Each structure stands twice: as C-alpha cells, then as structure tokens.
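ok trying again, last paste got cut off:
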Amino acid sequence: MASTSAVRAGDGAAGRIRKAATALASDNQPLIADIRKTINTMKEIAVEMEKLNRTQEVKQLENAVIELLNAAEECTCFYNVLQSVGNNYEPGPQLTNFKKLFEDEASKIKRGFSSNHQNHNLLRQFREAVWNVHHAGQPMPGEEQEDIVMTSTEVGLLNTVCPISGKSVTELSDPVRSMDCKHIYDKKAISHFMKNNTKCPVAGCPKVLQYNRVVCDPLLPVEIEEFRAMSKATVHADVIEDFTALDEED
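nice, full thing came through this time. structure:
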C-alpha cells in the first residue's frame, strides 16, 4: 500500500511539474513570435531606406536583426528546456536539484544551435529584400559559388502539408498544431478525424492527440508566413535560373 501511495505521489509531482513547464513555455511563445514579427517589419523598413540610398541606416537595421536573432535563440532555447524538463522529469528518491537539471538541459540543447546567424533564414530574407531593391534578378554576392537550400524546419514547421486534407499549410484558413508531436493540421479536418481516432494521422507518429492540446499557438501563423515568403523567394530564384539558362543557349 505504501509503495502504491509513493508511486501516486510521484505521478502527481511529475504531473504538476509538467503542467507548470507547459504553462511557462506557452507564455514564452508570444515573445518569440513578436521578435520574428519585428524582424519582418525591420526588413520592410530597410527596403524603403535602401530605395533612398540610406546605406548606413540599412546596415544598422541589419545589425539590430542579428541582435534580435540572438534574443530569439535564447527564448527558443528556454522554451525547449522547459518542454524537455516537463516531458521527461521523473521524481527520484532524493530531492531534485532543479537548478542543475535546467542548466544541464540548457547546455545540451544549446549545442544543437548554430552560433553563426549569417545563414539564418530571416537574415537571408532581410539581405535579399535589400539587395533586390537595386539588383532585382541578380544573385546576391556569394550565391554564384554555393547553392543555399532552405527547408521548412528553418522556420519551425515539422510538416508543410496537412496529412488529412492534403492542403499546403500556406492554404489553410484555420491551421492548428499538436502541442505534443508538433504536427500541423487543418482545424476542421483534424476535428472531424479525432471523433473516431486519437492517434496522430502523420505516418509513423506515435503521439495521441487531445482536443485541448491541438491549438493555433502564437508562433504558428508567424512560421507559416515565413515559410510562404521563403517559398516565393525559392520560386523567384528558380525562374531567374531558367531565364539565365535560356540566355546561355541563345
């Protein structure tokens, strides 16, 4: 009886830690979203500055973007640490040193982040928008020597097509994301799906879906918009390459 009570007490403690970590992580998401929205606004301002040939101000904006990317990375790391601790914490026989637990997890997660933001998708979009003001149709310096491939994971999207409706996430009028497996769905399609199924419809995903954990989190609209901009830039680059090839043939 005593061991059963201990297990229940442990489950209760782990559950409370998980709920607290999830709440704190969720509170952090709007800040990350605001940072990324601010970077997109700064890109628009930089384009107008470049049109006026105010090069110094454009450079200052670019430096500010790099600083914001550093801040966004710190916030994202904090978010991931909270999620990881909340999902994996199991109480042991000794009191948990949460300070050390968080520091160890932060150190492990930070190793997965790049210290060089020069190739970050948002910084690249900023520079490309400024470059195209006076050099539309021309590749940016350095692109002649390397082929830079951008992927959806760079803007935080685990999948770019709803596994139920088959629509691209950029076409969804009401996108939602699982807080557990991070897959994205059309809200109407997943709501209908969950009436008879609880397992994530993405092939190979073992996660069980819960209605209150399939939501449109603050970051999702921002990440979808970034992916839309990234996709347009890729198509534009492909068109330029096709025309270049035609010119060479002539």
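cool. Confidence is low (pLDDT under 50) at residues 1-10, 145-152, 237-246. The helical segments are 2-51, 55-88, 98-110, 121-135, 187-193, 219-249.
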